[in-house]
Design a protein that fits this description.
Blueprint (H helix, E strand, L loop, with lengths): L11 H8 L1 H17 L2 E4 L3 H15 L9 H9 L3 E7 L2 E10 L6 E9 L8 H15 L4 E6 L4 H10 L3 E6 L18 E7 L3 H7 L10 H6 L3 E6 L5 E3 L6 E5 L4 H7 L1 H20 L3 E6 L3 E5 L3
Helix pairs in contact: 1-2, 2-5, 9-10
InterPro entries: Acyl_CoA_acyltransferase, GNAT_N_AcTrfase_prd
Keywords: Transferase
GO molecular function: transferase activity
Length: 303
């Protein structure tokens, strides 16, 4: 395992980037992403900043009485050398991201929670936060960052798989149990675990603002012989298809958040249908290789 240097010591960052072009590019990409988003991204250590992060998460998840994290936990994470970062629009904290280290032998960081204020949507603050986290991790000799996301949330799937070029590695049914917040509701908390290989050429290209992976086109995949393993009916219900194609397409609902609020039974039906399709395909040797912005996973190598 690579020894993690102390990037707070005088001259460490400049010395490391001078001998490590990938690290230099990572720092530059993080700076460029923050500039493009119009925010300043930095580590959070002061109690006032950590309290702001807790309040931000409580607002995003609608959990004022029971926020997703506590000030005490963030304080301990930061003191122990884990990642607690925030994005500021002027003096206002508008985004935060928290991660902790895996077991030493894995040389990885687990990014546990990230969120951006709703009124900052479209500013790419989340992208700036992730690139700051990546540069921070690379400065410490870390090779991978892992995190989970809800596979039914189309925009997050596109962000993680297409925008960041993260690699799906495991489907986790009802990972957190019932979460009872305004985002997850009473639905099962299935998650897709991804690994972000920080020096992978696709990730480097994605962080530079280009396409990390070749864009996924459902139309092209269908023309090439892909099979619809899970589709959508005209009324928005899931429609199961064959699970034995060489390339399989798995649909998700257009907006699971709206569906959970308006028709929780249908939202739960989608949860079960996507779970069945993806777990079966992966168990049969399939690999989730991309996500079409129109709301389709592409799974290759299923036979």
């Amino acid at each position: 395992m690579t020894q993690r240097p102390d990037p707070t010591s005088m001259g460490t960052v400049s010395n490391l980037t001078a001998v490590d072009p990938d690290l230099d590019h990572a720092v530059q990409a993080a700076d460029a992403a923050a500039l493009a988003a119009g925010v300043a991204v930095r580590e959070l250590t002061d109690l006032s900043d950590l309290e702001d992060a807790v309040r931000l998460y409580a607002t995003i998840w609608g959990r004022d009485a029971n926020p997703p994290v506590t000030v005490e936990l963030l304080r301990a994470f930061a003191k122990a050398g884990n990642y607690v970062g925030g994005a500021f629009d002027g003096h206002r904290l508008v985004g935060a991201c928290v991660g902790f280290f895996h077991a030493p032998s894995e040389d990885a960081l687990h990014s546990h929670i990230a969120g951006v204020a709703r009124d900052l949507a479209g500013r790419h603050v989340g992208f700036a936060l992730k690139l700051h986290q990546r540069a921070w991790a690379m400065l410490r000799g870390v090779s991978d960052i892992a995190w989970t996301f809800d596979p039914l949330v189309s925009r997050n799937a596109y962000f993680n798989l297409a925008k960041l070029a993260a690699e799906p590695v495991e489907y986790l049914p009802n990972f957190y149990g019932t979460m009872l917040d305004t985002i997850n509701g009473v639905d099962d908390s299935d998650r897709l675990l991804v690994r972000w290989r920080l020096r992978d050429p696709a990730v480097v290209a994605a962080c530079a603002g280009g396409p990390g992976l070749a864009p996924v086109s459902v139309a092209d995949e269908l023309a090439a012989g892909a099979v619809v393993a899970l589709g959508r009916s005209r009324t928005g219900t899931p429609v199961a298809g064959p699970l034995d194609g060489p390339v399989s397409l798995v649909a998700v609902p257009a907006d699971i958040g709206v569906l959970r609020a308006e028709d929780p039974e249908l939202a739960h039906a989608w949860r079960n249908a996507v779970r069945e399709a993806l777990t079966t395909l992966v168990a049969g040797g399939g690999r989730v290789s991309g996500f079409d912005r129109a709301g389709w996973y592409v799974v290759r190598g299923t036979r």
